[in-house]
UniProtKB/TrEMBL annotation:
InterPro entries per UniProt: 2Fe-2S_ferredoxin-like_sf, 2Fe-2S_ferredoxin-type, 4Fe4S_Fe-S-bd, 4Fe4S_Fe_S_CS, Asp_de-COase-like_dom_sf, CT_Formate-Dh_H, Formate_Dh-H_N, MoPterin_dinucl-bd_dom
2Fe-2S ferredoxin-type domain residues: 5-83
A molecular-function term among this protein's GO annotations: NADH dehydrogenase activity
Protein name: Molybdopterin-dependent oxidoreductase
Record's keyword terms, sorted: 4Fe-4S, Iron, Iron-sulfur, Metal-binding, Oxidoreductase, Repeat
GO terms for cellular component: membrane; oxidoreductase complex
CDD domains assigned: fer2, MopB_CT_Formate-Dh_H, MopB_Formate-Dh-H
Originating species: Piscinibacter koreensis
GO terms under biological process: respiratory electron transport chain
Domain of life: Bacteria
Residue span, 4Fe-4S Mo/W bis-MGD-type domain: 227-282
Keyword 4Fe-4S: yes
Keyword Iron appears in the UniProt entry: yes
């Protein structure tokens, strides 16, 4: 900021300068002045209602609230004049006088300040409450302890309304309000409901904003002193919120949101209250080996007490030897294709990188995959084909610059709640949101247009939009001529896909389709965000191809507020894919059948990178002989399961597996088949933190590290590489995942050496950085320790990173988008007379993936303890069912019994089921039919029937005394 850009003024008698628009408060604090604040919170809209921050301005009759008053040229400000200080002290004293003297009875005396910021300011200003004021203490309302996560104690409330702004303006949930008048005014939830009965989604933004403890996490109702504060990254969805763990007595007591680039302090219920899974009593703490003679029964339902009957404890040396020797024997007897590995998107980049390196160099094949095959494989396939990169073109937060936000096949308020807040904030500022989804989701009330299209008809809807753009001359001709290939083929393919022709198929009237297409094409910036409702179909790749085409023909990519963003479901699914945890790609999406790329890795992993221009040179080892890598793409998740049940004569029959942090016995489609495949393996090694449904079918179980127990990097949905730091010690004899992988590699004869703390994580990262130099070459470990988060592509240490890409060229060989036309193809299993309903599976706000972590988090389990199926009320009535009834859902592959929940946002003829509940595993029903390009299963569409159930199944959840199934 130059002198020409500043405003001169006088602060406490000294000359000072401020930026245009800078508040007096911000300028004064920057210059070292002390001004009390209570209603003010950095990052929030200034409110000026507490008047604790008043200052004296020369020539003005009244004192001014410094938080919402901008500096003006020549202004003379006194922050601590007798008049200003007297008023500041009076405000603090009067507010303190209204509160119980001892503080909230649940806040311990060692908390330091019984009323948080208010008491702290009283100490700073030397304020004590006069007896005359104390005698006027207001009647105190009873506390509200109804919510599992948060306690409400309005006796500590000073009505600063920070919680109102937190709820309404930051998270945009509109739950907290201000009711009543005068002395009867108070904070309320909805219509003065108990918090647990309100529409609160437990994001905890209000708790983080509250200055006095009127709203508190129940986990910190005692002492407010912590042993340590550790900065890390949330371990759940792909948004990648930065967090601070507050650690006390060796456990996480609470979590605060940090001002990270993806969340700016915001969190959701999982990120704020889903942390205690790491200390759950069912944590694995000893290596386990299956007892001889104990068969693997995919239909059995063991409990935690059954562990000793199925497995015996072992030393690490024994367990690691048994694990590696079993793989070696199978490979020697049947060849390298007898082995396969599933890595994890729940761990770090370093773990994913080493895991795929172990499979490729230790197993000798490319049979390595992870959950991206079950979520966004089709999106990645279409993006690599069309734009040359499998990642997003711009971050979620770029919706701030969009005029139109097109959300299709995604439910961000449930699956990516913090990302949803940026969309809701954009709508409040005037952006138009279009929500396209068979179900009416939580974003619909903020939408300009809602398109509840018929399930499975994405291509019909999207082709109709593209048709309108082309037919009405709304294409960006310059963009197409300069940067797009195959436009004529696309135009020919959609020529007959008019809105009038597609309306009967997709269920959206023609005029609405035209209106949306025109709005998208003419917007200054239009951004598309999509989820697994687009990708988890046999035509998932075609769906994504259509989205790419819609952006391309309108020129809505490569500039702020426009582009393509597949919302990533797990915390590191982007990073795990980048690191090569997929069967046809080496790190940084270099194909295994590309001889040049494969040769580079053979030399690099064998000792030297070579000098072929594909990466850095290690001169001392450039002549190393290298390792031999299989040139054939490996099998994908579902294909590996098929190969596990293949005939013994099949030379590619999979007989042994290494599964780290994945739970295919819950996450794969057609679970009876998948569990049968896992049980059929001759040698299964599972590395995890709990006895998952998959671990019960293992021969060796290795106790691993939870996310708060490790240091490492993850890459979020925005392409941000972010550093998480270890906050906790591992329980018992559990070990770091990186250490376990390296120990197994040594027993397979791999000569790895990664020195340094935390199993050499920094050394592993540096090797991965070199292997992925075309994306993260400039993001060194030291830089991450310093900055915490850096966006790729970033090719030098001076490079700030590029949040928005494709501004000048695409990552394809010729730098142009390649359009691939798609025709409407129906799903593999449409409903019929015998199975008249469509099953849609997905996640819910409180639970994540297969539930092995979140259902062991006490608050999350309390909020959603049991499996449910959501149906339209009219469908329930037609079947003679009511909300709360037990019902059985049955497909051609299996059946589950669960509780019905009325949801008129679920279309008639469809049923929505979350897949996180083992006692009603939705994937017992789903269809393993695959997208021919991406090999992703069709989780979002299969035929089922619904009927009344006589009773609930026995057991449930992971609480003490409940059953935990093997399958």
């Amino acid at each position: 900021m130059t002198a020409r850009d500043t405003i001169g003024f006088t602060l406490d008698g000294a000359s000072a300068s401020a930026a245009p628009g800078e508040s007096i408060l911000d300028a004064a604090r920057r210059l070292g002045a002390t001004i009390p604040t209570l209603c003010h919170l950095d990052g929030y809209r200034p409110d000026g209602n507490c008047r604790a921050c008043v200052v004296e301005i020369a020539g003005e009759r009244t004192l001014a609230p410094s938080c919402c008053r901008a500096v003006a040229p020549g202004m003379h400000v006194q922050t601590a004049s007798p008049r200003a200080r007297k008023s500041q002290r009076m405000v603090v004293e009067m507010l303190l006088a209204d509160l119980p003297e001892q503080g909230w009875k649940w806040v311990g005396s060692d908390a330091g300040q019984p009323h948080g910021e208010l008491s702290a300011w009283a100490t700073t200003l030397g304020v004590t409450v006069r007896p005359e004021l104390r005698a006027l203490e207001r009647p105190q309302p009873a506390p509200d302890l109804s919510h599992p996560a948060m306690a409400v104690n309005l006796e500590a409330c000073i009505q600063c309304k920070r919680c109102v702004r937190a709820c309404d303006e930051e998270q945009d949930n509109d739950v907290i309000g201000y009711a009543g008048r005068g002395a009867g005014s108070l904070i309320v939830f909805d219509l003065a409901d108990p918090m647990v009965e309100s529409t609160c989604v437990a994001c905890g933004e209000c708790v983080q904003a509250c200055p006095t403890g009127a709203l508190m996490p129940k986990t910190t109702l005692g002492s407010q002193q912590f042993d340590a504060k550790v900065d890390s990254v949330c371990p759940f969805c792909g948004v990648g919120c930065l967090v601070t763990y507050n650690v006390r007595d060796g456990a996480i007591a609470s979590v605060d949101g940090r001002d990270g680039p993806a969340n700016h302090g915001r969190l959701c219920v999982k990120g704020r209250f889903g942390f205690d899974y790491a200390s759950h009593p069912q944590r694995l703490t000893k290596p386990l080996i299956r007892r001889q003679g104990v068969a693997k029964d995919p239909a059995s339902v063991p409990t935690p007490d059954d562990v000793s009957a199925v497995f015996r404890e072992a030393t690490w040396d024994e367990a690691l030897d048994v694990a590696a020797n079993g793989w070696r024997r199978l490979a020697q007897r049947h060849g390298p294709m007898a082995l396969a590995g599933f890595g994890s998107a729940k761990g770090s980049n370093e773990e994913a990188y080493l895991f795929q390196k172990l499979v490729r160099t230790g197993f000798g094949n490319n049979n390595v995959d992870h959950c991206t095959r079950l979520c966004h494989a089709s999106s990645v396939a279409a993006l690599l084909e069309g734009v040359g990169s499998g990642a997003v073109s711009n971050p979620v937060g770029d919706v701030e610059h969009a005029d139109l936000i097109f959300v299709i096949g995604a439910n961000p308020t449930q699956n990516h709640p913090v990302a949803a807040t940026w969309m809701k904030n954009a709508a409040e500022r005037g952006a138009r949101i279009v929500v396209a989804d068979p179900r009416r989701t939580g974003l619909a009330p903020y939408a300009w247009r809602v398109l509840p299209f018929n399930a499975d008809t994405d291509v019909a809807l999207l082709n109709a939009l593209i048709h309108v753009v082309i037919d009405e001359g709304l294409v960006d001709r310059d963009f197409i001529e300069q940067r797009v290939d195959n436009f004529d083929a696309l135009a020919a393919a959609v020529a007959t896909a008019s809105p009038e022709a597609m309306a009967p198929i997709c269920g959206i009237d023609a005029e609405t389709l035209r209106e949306v297409a025109r709005a998208f094409a003419t917007a200054k910036g239009a951004m598309i965000l999509w989820g697994m409702g687009v990708s988890q179909h046999v035509h998932g790749t075609d769906n994504a191809r259509c989205l790419i085409a819609l952006c391309a023909v309108t020129g809505q990519i490569g500039k702020p507020g426009s582009g393509l963003h597949p919302l990533r479901g797990q915390n590191n699914v982007q990073g795990a894919s980048d690191a090569g945890l997929i069967p046809m790609m080496l790190p940084n999406y270099q194909r295994v059948d590309d001889a040049a790329a494969r040769g580079w890795f053979e030399r690099f992993w064998g000792g030297g990178a070579g000098t072929d221009g594909r990466g850095p040179v290690h001169a001392a080892v450039a002549a190393a002989p290298g390792v031999a890598l299989d040139p054939r793409p490996g099998y994908t998740v579902v294909e590996i399961m098929w190969k596990a049940l293949a005939d013994d004569a099949d030379p590619h029959k999979v007989r042994g597996m290494y599964i780290m942090g994945e739970n295919p016995a819950m996450s794969d489609p057609d679970l009876n088949h998948a569990r049968g495949a896992l049980a059929a393996l001759e040698h299964l090694v599972v590395q995890d933190i709990f006895m998952t449904e998959t671990a019960w079918l293992a021969d060796v179980v290795l106790p691993a590290s939870a996310w708060p127990e490790k240091t490492g990097t993850v890459t979020n949905t925005d392409r941000m590489v972010q550093l998480g730091r270890r906050a906790l010690a591992m329980p018992g004899d559990a070990r770091l995942d990186l250490w376990i992988i390296q120990q197994l590699a040594a027993r397979l004869g791999l000569g790895w050496h990664y020195p340094g703390p935390d199993a050499g994580v920094a050394a592993v990262y540096d090797e991965m950085r070199q292997a992925m130099h075309g994306a993260i070459g400039g993001i060194t470990w030291n830089r991450l320790e310093r900055e915490g988060s850096v966006t790729y592509p970033c090719l030098s240490e001076a490079d700030p990173g590029r949040p928005i890409v494709f501004d000048d060229r695409f990552a394809t060989p010729n730098g142009r988008i390649r359009l691939v036309p798609a025709s409407f193809v129906p799903g593999a299993e449409p409903p019929d007379v015998d199975y008249p309903f469509v099953l849609i599976t997905g996640r819910q706000l409180e639970h994540w993936h297969t539930g092995s972590m979140t259902r062991r988090a006490s608050v999350l389990d309390a909020l959603e303890p049991a499996p449910t199926a959501s149906m339209h009320g009219a469908d329930m009535a037609a079947l003679g069912l009511a909300p709360g009834d037990a019902a059985t859902l049955e497909s051609r592959r299996g059946s589950v019994t669960l509780q019905l929940r009325r949801d008129d946002g679920t279309p008639r003829g469809a049923v929505f089921v979350p897949f996180a509940y083992w006692e009603a595993a939705a994937n017992l029903l789903t269809n393993p039919a695959l997208d021919p390009t991406a090999k992703i299963p069709e989780f979002k569409y299969c035929a089922i029937r619904v009927g009344a159930a006589a009773q609930w199944p026995a057991g449930g959840g992971y609480r003490p005394g409940t059953s935990v199934p093997a399958g």
